[in-house]
Amino acid sequence: MKVAVVTKAKAAIKIEERETPRPQAGEVLIRVKACGVCHGDLDLQQGAFPYGDIAAYPVIPGHEVAGVVAVVGDGVDWPKTGMRVGMPWLYSSCGHCAACLAGEGAMCAEAQITGVTKDGGFAEYMIAPASHVSVIPDGLDFAEAAPLMCAGLTVFRGLRNAEFQPGEKVAVIGMGGLGHLAIRYAKAMGGRVAVISRSPDKKKLSEELGAELFIDGGKKDVAEKLRAWDGGADIILATAPSVKEMNAAFPGLARHGRLVVIGVADAGVMVKPLDLILGERKVVGSLIGSRKDIQDCLEFSLAHGIRPEIETFALEEAGEAIQRMKNGNLKGRAVIVME
To answer: What angle do helix axes 179-188 and 151-161 make, rounded to 10 degrees?
Structure first.
């Protein structure tokens, strides 16, 4: 089989031929149909924290996997051969710690990460634990389903962590691969949406996706414009890794408003205590969703016609896809599609 490998931090993606692995007890072999390219794959290739410390180099990247079960290992009654399945960021967890028992396996101290500590989906075939695959509903194209395994799931879970209620106003920071999905989910859930972005050229697209307000994140009046939006945003969903925009927008939250941090940045979120206290506002972190969240996200996307904007690449173009993402000249999400 053909695979794309990161041999060490800062090394270029390398295409290799390997023997197709055989699943062991409790495992399945997935014939990969498509795999999304996430910013985490770039961090892995660059050796950025925390990936440089935990990555099992050489490793096959890719944690937005969509494919078909080709072979099942001993003792596997489900999934069945031929089923359409996906693999997310969480490859496996211990199953018995407090986090796992609460359905929060991504917080398990023994969690394994697809495409980081275990080989991922930049390959024609990959091994996965039968216990951690998710079913991709009929009606979702593999290439469109793949980014939902991480990008879609992340914003879907973020809205859940914010305890979103229909009718609430959601301000989305960033219009990248996560932001454009956040607009669609918030609208489909019955919310009103604003977009905060430093790219004025994204205004037209944000309106086409359903945003009623566009705020230039490079200006000094972000919070003021949010407060003028019928009293402020109930939720700020920070999909872009820019604490400058988070800090500027926070005072624009309504009473009991929530800033949900998804985008990972090096600097710290800085809010004034009075902005927290006067209005009882909150800052919430959101990691990645549970297996239930994944299934709900996929089914919700199918039911509401939510599909990511994608650009497709061949496996041999994996390095180009990551470089395009690094340069910021992708429209939506990059997806590697297998022949």
So the answer is: 50
Domain count, the chain: 2
Secondary structure of the chain: what % helix, strand, coil (to 5)?
Answer: 30, 25, 40
- Residue 110: half-sphere exposure toward Cβ, Cα within 13 Å: 8
Q: Is residue 20 domain-shared with residue 156, that is, in the same domain?
A: no
- pLDDT classification of 267: cutoffs 50, 70, 90: confident
Output the domain CATH number for residue 203. Answer: 3.40.50.720
Residue 239 confidence (pLDDT): 94
User: Both 250 and 309 in a single domain?
Assistant: no
Per-residue pLDDT, 329: 84
- The dihedral built from the CA positions of residue 65, 114, 3 and 316, taken in this order, carries a sign that is positive
CATH code for position 315 = 3.90.180.10
Size (the chain), residues: 339
What range does the domain containing 68 cover? 2-150+289-337
Residue 50: count of CB within 10 angstroms of its CB: 11
Are the C-beta atoms of 55 and 9 separated by less than 8 Å? yes
pLDDT at 253 over 90: yes
- CA 250 remoteness from chain centre: 23
Q: Rounded mean pLDDT of 255-273? A: 88
- Residue 179 is inside which H or E element, if any? helix 179-188
